């Protein structure tokens, strides 16, 4: 193996519905000291990945995997590669402590092959420290070695691909909310989203052990109400069309909005309905990326929750291994709880992957699907 062809899906950064498939040759003999060639085995895909594209400039997600113009003269200007979470195999390595054939899990480009530069190598994993990678947090740069990962289960790879990265946000968001909550009614918008479900499950299931008095309430579209109720992750569920029911028996309550949707109209409606009773607003995600009105953190006096910062804090306080062990236990309990709510769906080849991306972009993808994508 001297040359491999990397199949890459590029996205127009100004028009997210415009895609192109590009093939780039990677010469293995050109690998430099500590560089590693990864071959993508499988990756998951959901609305979370659309958030990466929608906030690509604002949050810096386009910087992780900058595309390079190829030998056929295809210009990369104005295009980006959407990050995904997936499993990859080491196909070639110029690092003495990383061997060919090793399986890892981490943040990958929507591409069949990619070259990283390994650093911070440890028994549990390593990081990509490549000069081309413009990272916004070291948490996104870590690759876990599956052989040493307490959360890895070869029989539940589809779950890990689709839920585990999102559940990391759920895990540290729950930790943050539990530390601050004082009996509020916690409102979770986009309650059917995977990150919101995970957060709700953690908050609700640990309420008794924490001796906490908060309530966990999901807000979702009318079509998703039954599914969200069936998950068992919420104390109560309301549709966006029935927000007035929130105040029917709780006039003295205080509310804390955990917003996963980034729909300014929804937040304004809640502000008008709840008034000063809406004591806190925390912005987490952007599932409703097409919303005409976006929330303004300054006007709302809202905070933006950045999960990698909380991960870094807790890893520093608990230690990396202890953090992974706690997280793995919580993640496995969640997967068991909601296992009957989802089904696996495969997508093979660049055409199928592109269609999956476009369906997720326009909101027509099945939210109950655990998408498993592979290149040919």
From TrEMBL:
Pfam families: DUF2855 (PF11017). This is DUF2855 domain-containing protein. It comes from Alteromonas macleodii.
